[in-house]
Design a protein that fits this description.
753 residues, mainly beta, 38-stranded mixed beta sheet, 9% helix
């Protein structure tokens, strides 16, 4: 039997090497899982947390507590319940629900700090700043070596912060941000893409007004914020920024506004940027270019040190550019606003303007605003803000539908003006001047209507007409001064009248001044009636008026040819002094002629401040009054009973005319004339007398009834003829009834009859 033998195997090095490598790689592949199992072991986690806390304490001086989790698959560090204590005893300075860092292993192995992706969930920070440092956290910053070169790449790849809230207080300013989300993506070369989204945040600031020393509190709200930007060193590109908020315009504390205010509310604040590029400079304003839209209440100017009490809002939307060639950026766009006021001056209910700012010159091709119940359109304006005096030029300003009451209201003169006046069209051209000091002059022409002066406010239902002009054309000049609006060298033409007005000054503090020099012509029919008193005559006058708009004093001189009042032809007035205050007009030193008779009126007063619509009281005197002229004054010439009465007399009479009120029972006017006559020559019904004297009392109660509506009482009369004058009373009562109780004296037969 033959024995078979197995040949001995040869040693296979490659095979053994493969087996060894499989075992090695198996252990290498198992190592992360083993390490992960070791790392999640509680004592190891506590050791890692303690070591990192010690490093923070040693390097930065910060005391923090948290739970640390280190994972190798994939490599990440996770901190939970991060808490940094504060030093002010008001709670933690920082709380983070979870902080997760995913560093890049190979970058770390290459010796570069690369934290990779960082995620921060629900951080809560409370910081107190003093002198630019955080005062409620104990910390120290590591010293930087002067040899350290600036980093050329970011220490992280991305940063994601969600549901963050930050409260910052510095002195009298407190800011509460959030909740907000922040995403930052790093690119090579320290370039960052930033996305920020925030909901309601608040800003609180206490300050002291320099003008009054009062303490006020601003409590503003940022309602929404969205930002997409790219940061490359000093180069900032804002792809899109949209922010809305509400400013607190109430100075008292506890008045924080709500984000639900209407879109048109003046306190709303809006800011939008698009394609906005800024390059920061070491000195001066950064280079800027891009799209800009900003809306803000004008009252915020007070927070910037502007002491003007502004109200309303303004919005600008357009393009901005600044490349360092001018002091202010170049702007092109549209400006709009509403409710704009300066203290009590309501400057514009709405406005819309085209703005073009270039080479430090502000150009306004068109500006339209609603003002004083009408519309004002400005064209081709230029302002040089940095030139001496701040020159301003305006080619044209057109006004339509402006009312005088609206003008007085919006300029804070008075809401209760006694003047109603419609400035149908006004055209101001060639305006020139400066803004500092405020001195602007221009040419003016306009068409007006419905000029009317009342005895009380124009809107009072009990107002009464005083004087008015249906329509007038204006030609002259207008000026603006720091204290008033001026109309000067202006002519007003209406009807048959032409008034040259040297000056009308409407002061911003309710003052009013008017100057009309001699030479102006006024047809009284063009301004009739005066209250209810009809007027006729061709007048020449000069006037000066001064005082408050609601209580001015007017003085002047007057001449009238063919004066007629209430239908009574009173002749020609060669001279008279006039004094006017609201509700009364007083005349003095009146020198007048009626026909061939001269007479004077030392004093006359038109009073509108009684229960009657008009009360006229006057004293009239004449040394040689022709009775024919006297009868014509009062329309007695229309009564045939006076046709045979002729003569010349000296007269001294008191005249009282009442229109309206309880005294005027017939509502057509009441005339009383009482006085004394001293006849130089007298012809009564073809009976000639050497003279005579009489006392009379005349009362005309019903003008419509003619001579049947008056009564005449002559309690004493003396007619001189021969040696014995006839004496006795005479009378005439309503209805035309006459009576006499005269007693004739002896008359020589040789006396003419």
């Amino acid at each position: 039997m033959l024995l078979r033998t197995t040949p001995a195997r040869r040693f296979d090095l490659a095979r053994w090497l493969a087996r060894v490598l499989c075992v090695v790689f198996g252990f290498v592949g198992l190592l992360p899982f083993v390490t992960e199992a070791v790392l999640v072991f509680a004592p190891v986690q506590e050791w890692a947390a303690a070591e990192t806390r010690a490093i923070l304490k040693r390097e930065l001086g910060i005391e923090a507590t948290y739970e640390a989790r280190l994972h190798l698959v994939p490599l990440r560090l996770e901190l939970r319940g991060l808490r940094v204590a504060s030093t002010d005893g008001e709670g933690p300075a920082l709380e983070v629900e979870r902080l997760r860092v995913r560093p890049r292993l190979f970058s770390l192995l290459a010796g570069r700090l690369d934290l990779g992706d960082i995620e921060v969930d629900a951080p809560r920070a409370r910081l107190v700043l003093e002198d630019g440092r955080i005062a409620n956290v104990a910390y120290r910053l590591p010293e930087q070596s002067k040899r350290t070169r600036p980093a050329t790449r970011s220490p992280f790849g991305s940063l994601s912060v969600s549901e963050a809230r930050i409260a910052v207080r510095s002195g009298d300013v407190s800011v509460a941000l959030g909740p907000f989300d922040l995403d930052v993506f790093a690119e090579p070369g320290n370039v960052f893409e930033i996305l920020l989204r925030s909901t309601e945040s608040s800003l609180t600031r206490a300050r002291t007004l320099t003008s009054t020393g009062a303490r006020v509190v601003d409590e503003d709200v940022l309602c929404r914020l969205e930002l997409r930007a790219r940061l490359d060193g000093k180069d900032v590109l804002v792809r899109r920024l949209a922010a809305t908020g509400v400013a607190d315009l109430n100075p008292h504390p506890g008045t924080r506004p709500s984000c639900t205010v209407p879109e048109e509310a003046p306190e709303r604040v809006e800011l939008r940027l698009w394609r906005f590029h800024a390059v920061m400079r070491e000195q001066g304003m950064p280079y800027l270019t891009g799209g800009l839209s900003v809306r803000a209440p004008l009252a915020l100017a007070g927070r910037a040190g502007v002491s003007l009490p502004l109200a309303g809002y303004a919005r600008f939307s357009g393009e901005i550019q600044h490349v360092g060639r001018s002091r202010i950026p170049e702007l092109r766009g549209e400006l709009e606003g509403g409710g704009i006021a300066l203290e009590g001056y309501r400057l514009a209910r709405t406005l819309r303007a085209d703005i073009d700012v270039r080479s430090d010159v502000v150009r306004i091709p068109r500006y339209a605003m609603t003002f004083a119940d009408g519309e004002v359109v400005l064209e081709d304006a230029e302002i040089e803000p940095f030139a001496p005096g701040v020159p301003i030029r305006v080619a044209r300003v057109d006004g339509r539908g402006i009312t005088f009451p609206g003008l007085m209201r919006d300029l804070d003169v008075t809401p209760n003006t006694v003047v109603r006046w419609d400035l149908v069209e006004t055209h101001v051209t060639n305006a020139r001047g400066t803004l500092s000091p405020l001195t602007i002059d221009a040419e003016l022409r306009g068409e007006t209507k419905n000029f009317e002066v009342f005895d009380r406010a124009f809107h009072d239902p009990l107002r009464r007409h005083m004087i008015g002009v249906p329509a007038a054309a204006l030609r002259g000049h207008v000026g603006v001064r720091p204290d008033a609006i001026l109309f000067y060298d202006t002519r007003a033409d209406f009807g048959q009248s032409s008034l040259y007005v040297e000056l009308v000054s409407v002061g911003f503090k309710n003052q009013l001044a008017i100057r009309i020099p001699p030479g102006s012509r006024l047809d009284l029919a063009d301004i009739s009636p005066l209250a209810t008193l009809t007027m006729k005559g061709k007048a020449e006058l000069d006037v000066a008026l001064d005082g408050l708009a609601n209580d001015p004093l007017l003085t002047g001189n007057l001449k009238v040819q063919g004066l007629e009042l209430a239908g009574f032809p009173l002749g020609d007035v060669h001279g008279a002094k006039v004094t006017f205050r609201p509700l009364w007009v007083q005349f003095s030193d009146i020198q007048a002629t009626k026909g061939t008779s001269n007479y004077t009126v030392p004093q006359a007063k038109l009073d509108f401040e009684t229960r009657a619509s008009l009360l006229v009281e006057a004293i009239a005197r004449s040394d040689a009054l022709d009775l024919v002229d006297f009868f014509e004054m009062w329309h007695f010439d229309e009564d045939p009973r006076f046709d045979a009465v002729r003569g010349r007399t000296a007269v001294n009479a008191a005249i009282r005319y009442v229109l309206g009120g309880p005294e005027d029972r017939c509502k057509g006017g009441l005339l009383k004339v009482a006085g004394k006559l001293a006849a130089h020559e007298l012809d009564l019904y073809e009976e000639y007398y050497d003279g005579g004297e009489a006392e009379f009392d005349f009362l005309w109660e019903d003008f419509a009834a003619g001579y049947r509506g008056f009564s005449l009482r002559v309690p004493r009369m003396v007619l001189k003829k021969g040696r014995g004058p006839p004496t006795g009373p005479l009378g005439s009562s309503p209805g035309g009834r006459c009576r006499s109780g005269g007693r004739p004296g002896p008359v020589p037969l040789a006396s003419p009859i």
